[in-house]
Amino acid sequence: MANPVIAPRAYTPGVIWLTGLSGAGKSTLSSALAQALGADGYGPVTLLDGEEVRRRLPHRYGHSLEDRAQVARHVIDLAEAELTAGNIVIVASISHQLWMRQTARTRLGRFLEVYLDCPAQTCAARDVKGHYARAYRGEEACFIGVTHDYECSEKPDLTLSTGTQSIASCQAELRARARDFLNNP
């Protein structure tokens, strides 16, 4: 049997911004959401993963507070360009300072902030690259959740407890909320 053709949906493009500590599940959930929305007939969908954007930029930014701020500005600029082109934009970015997310919300207009709530200890246990271990040993000058705090928004549009909820549960909740966001301008 042939695969059914999914008819494009009528929707209003917007930005779905996943934020939280390193290891909270941003990349996993954002890529799953991009695939799910495509399968549901939404699109085009652009996924901007903060670390991927950092690697593609012509200037090599580190992880200092100043460099993180510059990368955040670039991510906002890219999201704005994609949104202006009529695309759904999914951003996966630590964006640990409140001003970063507030600036994005103000500039981008249609904005859904999704906070992935996961304790640093749980994120550290998931860290296969050893970033948290280096930060705890004092080998990282700027590591959010260890050397610098993550500034929580007072009321994100959606909070997923990725430290306690299953991945499947988080994916389902995010997909439902994203569809509602896109369908209701």
Automatic annotation (TrEMBL):
Highest taxon in the source lineage: Bacteria
Pfam families hit by this protein: APS_kinase
Domain APS kinase: 14-160
InterPro entries for the chain: APS_kinase_dom (IPR059117), P-loop_NTPase (IPR027417), Sulf_AdTrans/APS_kinase (IPR050512)
GO CC terms in record: cytoplasm
Keywords (A to Z) from UniProt: Kinase, Transferase
One biological process term in Gene Ontology: sulfate assimilation via adenylyl sulfate reduction
GO MF terms held by the record: adenylylsulfate kinase activity; ATP binding; sulfate adenylyltransferase (ATP) activity
Classification via Gene3D superfamilies: P-loop containing nucleotide triphosphate hydrolases
Record carries keyword NAD: no
Statement: the UniProt record of this protein carries the keyword Kinase: yes
Name of this chain's protein: Adenylylsulfate kinase
